[in-house]
Design a protein that fits this description.
The structure holds 2 protein chains of 2 kinds. Helix content of chain A is 71%, strand content 0%. Chain A is mainly α. Chain B is an alpha/beta fold. Chain B is built from 21 helices and 16 strands. In chain B, the strands form 5 sheets. Chain B has a 5-stranded antiparallel sheet. In chain B, strands 7-10-13-6-14 form a 5-stranded parallel sheet.
């Protein structure tokens, strides 16, 4: 398996094949950030939310800018259309932890503030969720770095 | 180094074929002048863009040629596709695709060359005037025997199995068989079995129903259904997975199959022409190719000789390609010098006619301000071959008697007019004189 093939599947929005290919790439090259970045999105589209969340946490812990600096048009990022579809679901009253976390993940590729908004909503559904708390800490720290006035408290 | 790169770009810009390259993210990083002309897109506008956004073809999503090469690890030739031009018009093209690798053999990009089919059809029509048999160039004994066989089987529906090295022209032979057959006015479908992964190949050949797999969003007939009443050409048939070979055997024996994901049995009447370049005996021995399928396909076997075994066809082929490129590039180059002839006659031609065509195109593109290709314009690998001992001389002696008789026949027919004979053989008068001297033929012109 190779990264270029994964890139093609991802570009063609064939998320099943993209997820399989990028997982193989990461198996051989665990530090391949490009593969990880695209795998996170692909996994959200094939129902592997938990694995996607784990990888997302790893990546933002390692280098949050790699996601935040995404240019949706220049980088052909599908997140705008994906969040659009998923937000439609939430309009009909589905506010599960998974849906909110997934929206939080996808929004970080376009807008960090919206991402924080969805992870905070996820926290309302499950206040003691460790991973959501840890993710929010990293996101807010990033916002704080961007703006000195942003108040960041590590979750208790 | 910079000069070398500029020269390469100049060469690519002078090609009649559109050429573009992509990086590993499928962003375009090179776009030649012909690609600009064919697509109507300006180079400056497309560099850095994702290729899918430029060509806007559904193929980009379903059958990306570079993805097919990445999957099969084999380059693609003459792949039929469609692209959208800058003025939103779809045009049919034929393309070749290859993947570019770094030193660690990891894919780092891809290259696609393409031509408009309408251009190709016009040129093929013109060139067919030169050909000896349905677009095929060949006056050597083995090729004449193949043409004779094709004529003999024209009333038959029996399967044909074509074997020949890569680049020998298996598809052209398949075309000739179809064009001379009683099914010539019926549908003719071609598929390369080595290009598609197993799961896609089953769907491609036999069709699928909605929901059969992730991307099966609607029912779709396979190539066998589309070819009903006509002919199907299965190139690289021995590359099929064994399970698929079994399904193919059933179609050949009973004419029946099922679409992927469906239990309804469908019946078709399709004539099968298959081809391969692999060592059949080896494939049968190792179990890669089913013996029962082989015997079912091999009713009429055709063995295409490699170019090194039909060197008497070399000059007519060179002339043919010179004509072709003259039409394509609108540049008049109609001969090669003696040194070039000697060098190409001595070369091994492992890639056969396709390789010869590429070499002639390379030299053609590099030749300016002259209507003769000289040896200095040949690729280095051919020029470097100068000192090698060749199979050609040995072969030429074996074939000498055949060529001598052929030459005598044509001289007789033309009442020993050297001009007319040279014209018919598409060689220069000097070459004709040399050949007559070589074969010990005395001039009988009064």
């Amino acid at each position: 398996m190779n990264e270029m093939l994964g890139n093609q599947y991802f570009m063609a929005r064939n998320y099943m094949e993209a997820a399989n290919t990028f997982q193989s790439v990461l198996h051989d090259e665990p530090n391949n950030l490009n593969a990880k970045k695209k795998l996170i999105i692909s996994l959200t589209q094939v129902g592997k939310y938990s694995k996607s969340l784990d990888l997302f946490f790893d990546l933002i812990n390692e280098n949050i800018d790699f996601i935040v600096d995404t240019d949706p048009i220049k980088d052909d990022c599908p997140c705008a259309e994906l969040v659009n579809n998923l937000e439609l679901v939430t309009k009909y009253g589905t506010h599960s932890l998974t849906t909110l976390q997934t929206l939080g993940i996808l929004w970080l590729y376009c807008d960090i503030n919206k991402s924080v908004e969805y992870f905070e909503k996820a926290l309302q559904v499950k206040p003691n969720d460790e991973k959501t708390n840890a993710i929010l800490y990293i996101l807010k720290k990033k916002l704080s770095d961007n703006s000195q006035n942003y108040d960041v408290k590590y979750p208790s | 180094m910079a000069d070398y790169e500029i020269k390469n770009e100049d060469i690519l810009d002078s090609l009649g074929e559109g050429v573009f390259t992509v990086d590993k993210s499928f962003r375009i990083n090179f776009f030649n002048k012909a690609a600009e002309r064919i697509t109507g897109n300006k180079k400056e506008e497309v560099i850095g863009e994702f290729c899918k956004n430029v060509f806007k073809s559904k193929v980009c999503f379903t059958e990306c040629p570079i993805a097919l090469v990445l999957n099969s690890k084999k380059n693609i030739y003459d792949f039929e596709s469609k692209i959208k031009t800058a003025n939103e018009k779809f045009i049919p093209i034929k393309l070749n695709a290859a993947v570019l690798h770094n030193e660690e053999e990891k894919p780092i990009g891809g290259v696609i060359s393409f031509r408009e089919v309408s251009d190709l059809e016009r040129i093929e029509k013109d060139l067919n005037k030169d050909s000896n048999f349905h677009g095929i160039i060949g006056k050597s004994k083995p090729m004449m025997e193949i043409f004779e066989l094709i004529k003999e089987i024209s009333d038959s529906d029996a399967p044909v199995f074509i074997h020949g090295e890569s680049g020998t022209g298996k598809e052209m032979i398949a075309n000739a068989i179809q064009q001379t057959s009683i099914r010539k006015d019926k549908v003719f479908i071609k598929i390369n079995c080595s290009v598609l992964p197993a799961h896609l190949l089953a769907s491609e050949l036999f069709g699928h129903v909605k929901g059969a797999f992730t991307d099966a969003v609607k029912d779709r007939p396979g190539r066998f259904e589309i070819a009903d009443g006509g002919t199907i050409f299965l190139d690289e048939v021995a590359e099929m997975p064994l399970q698929m070979q079994l399904q193919l055997l059933r179609v050949l024996q009973e004419g029946t199959f099922e679409r992927v994901g469906e239990s309804i049995t469908r019946r078709v009447d399709v004539r099968v022409i298959a081809a391969t370049n692999i060592n059949i005996e080896e494939a049968l021995r190792t179990g890669k190719f089913r013996e029962d399928l082989y015997y079912r396909l091999n009713v009429i076997p055709i063995e295409i000789p490699p170019l090194k075994d039909r060197l008497v066809d070399l000059i007519p082929l060179v002339k043919h390609f010179l004509n072709k490129f003259s039409l394509l590039y609108k540049k008049e180059i109609n001969d090669i010098d003696d040194e070039t002839l000697e060098l190409i006659s001595n070369f091994e031609w492992r890639g056969n006619i396709r390789e010869l065509e590429n070499v002639i195109e390379y030299s053609f593109v590099r030749t300016n301000n002259s209507n003769i290709i000289t040896a200095s314009k040949l690729p280095p690998m051919i020029r470097g071959n100068n000192n090698k001992k060749r199979a050609f001389n040995k072969y030429y002696n074996d074939e000498e008697s055949f060529e001598k008789h052929q030459l005598l026949d044509i001289l007789e027919k033309n009442h020993w007019s050297k001009t007319k004979t040279a014209q018919e053989l598409k060689i220069g008068r000097t070459t004709l004189w040399r050949k007559m001297k070589q074969f010990g033929i005395d001039d009988q012109e009064n």
